[in-house]
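In response to the reviewer comment on reproducibility (Comment 2.3), we provide here a single inverse folding case reported in full, input and output, so that an independent group could reproduce the run without further information from us. The structure tokens appear first.
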């Protein structure tokens, strides 16, 4: 597997192709034992590859389609030119031009239909994999009556691998709109609606128009970047984010919710209350924890990128103020009998509070694991990190969990309870001591 530094440097190579890279949000960078590779699976040009558990990137092959950003669950890869805001603005302009109809087409299809399609009626992208569920649901929340995605024959296209991602995005967006009872419909096809055809009076130079639109996009991007730099400078946020992060005060790595997920949640809120109880899709997952197998190590909460899994501590004041507990000092059974005494004195005793002096649960403290389905990104890092294989991931979620911050609570075992006290050695070696192979 590629070393930790390799992942960060390789991802940063994509910045020259119109991407903003936040390597510290990549789950493979956060923990080197986690395997992902979704960006490589979605890459239509093959510039990102994972072979023999090693990541490799060839920026020269990148076409800037943005499929990798759509597939990345944590937002470690984000497109810049155009960015999500520009795509949404262009979708809104096309929606207004077509009286509620949003048409999005890949570059290959538009090249085949050159001169026949009204440029103002279509959103052009390098590959439809650039469009995610958040953009589609946002258009529906803004009043779009129909969304049509037009692609070339993906089977014969050089970027055919993007078809799997397109299908999953459309299926997920359709499920969300159906669950919220939205009248907007999404269609994926290979033909343009008649409304996109150029009229007889359209005699302007298409190439000149595209050139001017390109200059406009470059100016808008430059203005946005300048504004961001000024804001960062005023707020003291100009420093670059560290490539690698350390744990916070609560013992976990920093949590972030991608901007796309925030936008999607807001759009669903604008659509109103859901009509269905559950919704399938690739975006949300349900984490199921086997309490019997869970050891209470809390590793899943430490590395969860969004905070969907989090530690929750409660302190029982009554237990904290309880009397000290006596226990025999480990490894010190010697008596303190005086010389010539008839009976040996009792063993030496020490005092401490709680079940174990080294325990984080001492003093009446109880730690629970909270799971918030609304925040889950489905990155699968928790399942891979669990040393006891106590976590199972299921696709789909209750719509009530999407519209609220409802949580499920799993009480954690005290992983340090049996590491202190007089029976520490006995507890740590219990499997060996009790083995039938030793004692028959």
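Designed residues, in position order:
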């Amino acid at each position: 597997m590629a070393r930790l530094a390799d992942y960060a440097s390789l991802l940063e190579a994509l910045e020259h192709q119109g991407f903003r890279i936040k390597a510290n949000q990549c789950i493979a960078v956060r923990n080197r034992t986690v395997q992902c590779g979704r960006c490589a699976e979605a890459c239509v040009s093959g510039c990102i590859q994972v072979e023999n558990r090693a990541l490799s990137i060839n920026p020269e092959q990148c076409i800037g389609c943005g499929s990798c950003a759509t597939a990345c669950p944590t937002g470690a890869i984000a497109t810049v030119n155009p960015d999500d805001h520009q795509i949404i603005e262009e979708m809104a302009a096309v929606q207004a031009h077509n009286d509620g109809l949003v048409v999005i087409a890949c570059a290959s299809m538009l090249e085949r239909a050159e001169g026949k399609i009204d440029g103002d009626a279509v959103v052009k992208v390098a590959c439809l994999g650039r469009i995610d569920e958040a953009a589609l649901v946002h258009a529906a929340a803004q009043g779009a009556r129909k969304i049509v995605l037009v692609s070339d024959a993906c089977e014969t296209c050089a970027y055919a691998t993007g078809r799997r991602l397109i299908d999953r995005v459309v299926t997920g967006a359709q499920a969300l709109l159906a669950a919220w009872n939205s009248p907007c419909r999404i269609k994926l096809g290979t033909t343009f609606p008649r409304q996109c055809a150029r009229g007889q009076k359209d005699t302007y130079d298409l190439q000149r128009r595209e050139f001017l639109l390109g200059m406009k996009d470059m100016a808008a991007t430059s203005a946005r970047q300048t504004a961001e730099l000024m804001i960062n400078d005023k707020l003291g946020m100009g420093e670059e984010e560290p490539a690698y992060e350390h744990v916070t005060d609560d013992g976990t790595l920093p949590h972030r919710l991608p901007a796309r997920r925030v936008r999607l949640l807001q759009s669903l809120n604008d659509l109103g209350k859901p009509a269905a109880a559950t919704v399938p899709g690739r975006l949300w997952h349900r984490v199921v924890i086997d309490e019997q197998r869970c050891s209470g190590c809390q590793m899943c909460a430490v590395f969860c990128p969004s905070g969907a899994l989090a530690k929750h501590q409660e302190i029982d004041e009554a237990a904290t103020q309880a009397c000290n507990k006596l226990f025999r000092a480990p490894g010190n059974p010697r008596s303190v009998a005086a010389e010539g005494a008839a009976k040996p004195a009792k063993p030496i005793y020490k005092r401490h509070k709680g079940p174990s002096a080294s325990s984080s649960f001492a003093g009446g403290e109880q730690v629970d694991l909270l799971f918030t389905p609304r925040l889950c990104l489905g990155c699968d890092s928790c399942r891979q990190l669990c040393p006891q294989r106590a976590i199972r991931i299921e696709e789909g979620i209750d719509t009530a969990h999407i519209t609220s911050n409802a949580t499920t609570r799993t009480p954690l075992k005290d992983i340090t309870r049996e590491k202190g006290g007089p029976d520490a050695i006995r507890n740590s070696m219990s499997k060996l001591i009790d083995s039938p192979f030793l004692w028959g």
